[in-house]
């Protein structure tokens, strides 16, 4: 007889220069980082009980990132998605700090040339923004295309990583 494990979910909300961030953990492992008014943001009821304890290391690394002291996150992640979505999200984690890739370049890296639209859809469903840096993906022409957290945030995150952004917190 097999027993079914029901995942335990917890969440907390932290401040950032880009507005409040809701962190979600599944069985103690980061599974979500959501911005206010984010497209594809799950409903609050799915975040579990408030509990900051699972997030100490995530918060420490986010603080170091926003202070300009951390360029690559080193956190275990629990990413729920299709195998294709997870492969896209893994490619996102390979984009170096301060650099960008186009949707087409990611499709090529995945061995699926011509799948740039599918890459864009998977990118938009990324459950762990900033840490899985979907903001580093741009259009083929270099244009800033859709971003679940809003184009203003995407532009500010890219400018921050390039050292050309202003540090003024966004007001929400």
Q: What is the global morphology?
A: globular
Return the average pLDDT rounded to an integer.
88
End-to-end Cα distance, whole Å, is: 51 Å
Q: In angstroms, what is the radius of gyration? A: 16 Å
Give start-end ranges of low-pLDDT stretches. none
**SS summary, helix count:** 5
Strand content: 5-15%
Helix fraction, binned, reads: 25-40%
| Structural class determined from secondary elements | alpha/beta
Largest sheet: 4 strands, mixed
Q: Let me know the number of strands.
A: 6
Helix/strand order = EEEEHHEHHEH
Q: What is the spatial order of strands in the main beta sheet?
A: 3-2-1-4
Describe this structure in words.
The strands form two sheets. A four-stranded mixed β-sheet has the order 3-2-1-4, with no helix packed on it. Strands 5-6 form a two-stranded parallel ribbon. With 172 residues, the protein is an alpha/beta fold. Helix 3 (103-109) packs across helix 4. Strand 1 (9-14) and strand 2 form a beta hairpin. The mean pLDDT is 88. It is built from five helices and six strands.
What layout of secondary structure does this protein have?
Elements: E1 9-14, E2 21-26, E3 29-35, E4 49-50, H1 56-66, H2 83-92, E5 101-102, H3 103-109, H4 116-124, E6 137-138, H5 151-162
Parallel strand pairs: 1-4, 5-6
Antiparallel strand pairs: 1-2, 2-3
């Amino acid at each position: 007889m097999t027993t079914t494990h029901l995942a335990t979910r917890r969440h907390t909300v932290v401040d950032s220069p880009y507005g409040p961030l809701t962190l979600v953990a599944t069985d103690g492992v980061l599974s979500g980082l959501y911005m206010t008014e984010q497209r594809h943001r799950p409903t609050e009821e799915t975040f579990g009980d408030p509990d900051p304890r699972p997030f100490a290391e995530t918060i420490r690394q986010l603080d170091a990132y926003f202070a300009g002291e951390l360029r690559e996150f080193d956190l275990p992640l629990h990413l729920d998605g299709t195998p294709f979505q997870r492969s896209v999200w893994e490619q996102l984690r390979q984009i170096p700090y301060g650099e960008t890739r186009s949707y087409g370049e990611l499709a090529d890296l995945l061995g699926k040339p011509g799948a740039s639209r599918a890459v864009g859809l998977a990118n938009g469903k990324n459950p762990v923004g900033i840490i899985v840096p979907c903001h580093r993906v741009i259009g083929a022409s270099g244009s800033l295309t859709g971003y679940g957290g809003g184009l203003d945030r995407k532009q500010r995150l890219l400018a921050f990583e390039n050292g050309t952004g202003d540090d003024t917190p966004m007001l929400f």
